Amino acid sequence: MPLTADPPAAVTLDDVRAAARTLDGVAVRTPLVEVPALSDLAGVPVVLKCEQLQPVGAFKVRGAYNAISRAAAAGARGIVTQSSGNHGQAVAWAARAFGLRAVVVMPESTPRFKVDGVRRHGGEVVFAGAVRSPEQGQRAEAIAREDGLAMIPPFDHPDVVAGQGTIGLEIAEQRPDVAVVLSPVSGGGLLAGITVAISALKPQARIVAVEPAGAAKLSAALAAGEPRTLQRAESMADGLLTRSIGSFTFPIIRRVVREAVQVTEDQIAAAVRFLHREAGLRVEPSGAVTTAAVLAGRVRLDGPAVLVVSGGNVDPELFQRLAE
Asked: Which of 18-22, 62-66, 319-323 has the lowest mean pLDDT?
């Protein structure tokens, strides 16, 4: 039988601290980098939490490794997940560290460089459906049943959330005077984890979610008081195209997060270009949305701000067009 876990009622600060111990020496304690032009524009100190420096180039390694370490301890024979990119690479990377098989169910339209990334880290790729479609989840569940593999979802899992929460733990330690934390949001694993840590350690700080205008699932959920599934999700920020916030992550998020701001495609493109020109950073559109929100004046900054840059895995041709 697949080794799946029923999520507990919540993820606690102790869970995040336990994840930090698991990730010690594995995940990079990423630096906070100030871009003077951004601070000058905002009128307050603004720093970037550079998660593109992680193994596999994105924050996802934190949650994947934490969850897989627990699955391995429980006797998992292998791992299966669904992903359009970064999570799949992180699962393949972490599973190989534990000597486990990793199967990643990806959309049929997945760019070749993302498929190659999963395979480069030892993962097996199975194609099913469109981006974030039900077919992906159904195929992954079928593989879990048939092959006896542990399912590690991209975001809606307590161990994944706890792993992502180590970003918030580091922010609180690295920037004790933080007043605002901006985080990208898709299914909510990253935002939920950061919320757990920051609300416990820096309760005075505001946490602001940023999402593409074409995939504003958290805005819809906050307005309705519960997750709502969008008819469609479209953006160059392909890591943020989940059509609904997670059923596990949303209750964690809604207790603290009151602001979900949206950025346009032009604003995202401008942010990718800005980060390249002003800071020499190669950032994927999904990771640039927090910078886009500041550049576009979409969020009020009333004190030192930390912008989570979630990753740097971007198609080379797309990056070249945006950077120019």
From this structure: 319-323
pLDDT tens digit sequence for 201-220: 999 999 999 999 999 999 99
Say how many Å lie between the first and final Cα of the chain, rounded: 51
Give the Å distances, CA to CA, from 125 to 129, 196, 298.
13, 33, 38
Output the CA–CA distances (angstroms, integers) from residue 238 to 132, 286, 298, 313, in the order listed.
10, 7, 21, 11
136 and 116 Cβ atoms separated by less than 8 Å: no
Contact of 214 with 235, CB cutoff 8 Å = yes
Candidates 3.50.50.60, 3.40.50.1100, 2.60.40.1930, 3.40.50.620; CATH matching 13-58+159-323: 3.40.50.1100
The pLDDT of residue 132 is: 65
Secondary structure letter of residue 253 according to DSSP: H
SS3 125: strand
Angle made by CA atoms 3, 6, 11, in degrees to the nearest 5: 115
Model pTM greater than 0.85?
Answer: yes
* Residues in Cβ contact with 40 at an 8 Å cutoff, skipping those fewer than 6 apart: none
Place of tokens 């307005």: 223
Specify the pLDDT at position 188. 97
Helix (H) or strand (E) holding 22: helix 13-23
Phi, psi of 83, deg, nearest 5: -165, 150
